[in-house]
Amino acid sequence: MEEKKLDINSIIGFVLIFAILIFMFYTNKPTPEEVEAQKIEQQKIEAEAEKEELQQAITAEPTINVNDSTAVANYKSAIGAFGFTAPNNGVTEFQNDLVYFKISNKGGQIVEAKMKNFVTYDSIPVYLVKDGNASFSLEFNTSDNRVLNTKDLYFTPSLSTNGDNKILSMKAKVSNNQYLEYRYEIKPDDYLVDFTVRSQGLNSVINSSKPVQLDWQLKAIRHDKSIKYENRYTRLTYNHEEGKISKLSDSSEEDEETEDNVKWLSYRQHFFSSILATKTPFKTAKLNSKNLVKEESKTAGFTKAYQSKVPLELSGGELSYNMNWYYGPTDVKVLSEYKELGLVDSIPFGWGIFGWINRYVFTPLYTFLSSFLPYGIAIIAMTILVRLAMSPVTYKSYLSQAKMKVLKPEITELNEKFKDNAVKKQQETMKLYRKAGVSPMSGCIPALLQMPIFYALFMFFPTSFALRQKSFLWADDLASYDTIFEWTTHIPLISTFYGNHISLFPILASIAIFFYMMMTSGQNMQQQPGMPNMKFILYLSPLMMLIFFNSYASGLSLYYFVSNLITILIMLTIKNFIINDDKIHAQIQENKKKEPKKENKFQRKMREMMEEAEKQKKK
To answer: 254 with 290: CB under 8 angstroms?
Structure first.
């Protein structure tokens, strides 16, 4: 009767939490005048943000009017020997079936990179480079004491083929046989572009006493529905020191590092990446990442600003670097094809054992299931398999709870008997546990074993490219949040922590978690001195799920919802058909008749500490 009363009180408490949330929504609802004022203020903020973004765009120097003889003459005078290449405004289109590039004669660099087979959340083609958001240049000193930058130089384009491959040669010439060349080679159905930077006959032109400085900048273009959520998984990642993978901060306002022996640099934009890889590792690189997202916005266009400065070494006074550009999806299936470069390591699987589980267990498992099942059903199928695999752990956990339940009357008696002596009460309780052959920690260990699974899945769903823009039930994108109700008015605190929308999957997951926790801890909740209030934790966990998962991937909330439903069913099966309370009670009574287990070192140390504490108390 007491347990049923506790369950009813718990349910009433959980309902009250939802009622409080609804009341907060209602009481914080602004008046029409406040709505209009907030709308005007929001428009001002967005206009200022747009203006600032335009001002901060990374752009090359303006092109020259080739018909203006004075402008052409000034240009040639400024760049000295490289004036041999006549100014020639324009771009060269360079593409295959997967990616489309525009490469400018001014600077010889990529000024547009568009994914042919992907669109953003609002059906606009995915651009990684566009409208001056990126810049690639080399700065060097000349023998006549000039400091030149390739973004100011004009290159002469030349297209050719090598079998099915397309080749674009961009040359900034000093003479017909002396030049700086950017060579691009693209294969059919491939995101990777071979990129060679080399010079010929420039050993007397370039001052070899000073290094050539490579400067690659990019502002990550927003592609997702929630810019804050996208920004969380947008980072500068790099391979250095012979295979070590490191990252700059994803949340700090600015982060900067100088690293040695860099093999590749990845400017990740959540589900898409711009990567520069080199076959001759950069001896050193200065890396910088700036966070451009301060709050949720529907109009902000950029997430982070990246910059890498790399000194390039000359060999015999000449440049020669064989590199690769990768502009494409952050997809394990695609990046795994470039094993020699190791680009798949740029995907955020997670650290340590969590990343290992994500990469080698969940990713292949979900790839297999989604090859013949709808994407949402594949998540449910994977959830069922995971929970069945973890069912022995669930059994151990519930068995421990059942044993503790049987001992509950005796523990209550000890608590009452030694209510004024906490140390003695603890000693007698541990003595009872040893005598009955029960370990209170045995219920915690199964939970700890599940933590790697929990965290690995926490990283899998938000970063799995296979889930991007895949719909299920009311969710139109399993890699983003689902929406059943949305509003535009900014409500203090609620909009900041909860967002301007309501997602249904987190609500369902919160309810399932609440009932699961009620089953596992609600019936045996005893408030211990100095310990957190268990009823508070019972309510807090679902509430945290409800609030913080509201803007997370709906696939993750779907997993937790189904996972907890299955766990509840497994526990009900164990309780009603596998575990017999009478048998457990009889076994414990038999254990009591035996000699109690010998204390291990930890138990002995704890007992000695408590005894010492008791002596000090008496003194």
So the answer is: yes
